[in-house]
Design goal:
Strand content: under 5%
Mean pLDDT: 93
Number of strands: 0
Low-confidence stretches: none
Distance between the termini: 117 Å
Number of helices: 2
Shape: rod-shaped
Radius of gyration: 45 Å
């Protein structure tokens, strides 16, 4: 609005200069322009208000869109974190399961070694 007003005043002065150079009465023309500006002020005010409302609505729309995008991004991150937690729990559960299986195999091997050693000892004793 202030830029428009500055542009109007610049345009008005140039217009008045051109018209007065062409022989028109500058003060009479300036008075007519000022009267016309006063007559159209309510219309310009309504246009400015309408423009402001449109800009505010547009900004609100952008903010809602940005907020929705942020929420979607946060939801994606949350899903990814949950998925990673499940994978991690599964991994450690499987790791624990593998450790238990390893211990079982080691105990079984120890029994076999012990049994084999006993059998070898019995065969030695028989000879």
């Amino acid at each position: 609005p202030s830029e428009l007003e500055a542009d109007w005043h610049s345009f008005r002065e140039h217009y008045l200069d051109m018209c007065s150079n062409a022989g028109w009465d500058r003060s009479r023309l300036a008075t007519q322009l000022d009267e016309r500006m006063l007559e159209t002020a309510p219309r310009r005010q309504r246009q400015l208000e309408r423009w402001n409302l449109q800009k505010m609505a547009q900004e609100e729309s952008w903010q809602r869109r940005a907020l929705a995008q942020e929420r979607r991004r946060e939801q994606r991150e949350l899903r990814a974190l949950r998925r990673e937690d499940r994978r991690s729990r599964r991994f450690y559960r499987e790791l624990g399961s593998m450790e238990r299986a390893k211990q079982s195999i080691q105990r079984l091997l120890q029994r076999w070694r012990h049994k084999t050693a006993k059998e070898l000892q019995k065969e030695h004793e028989k000879r």
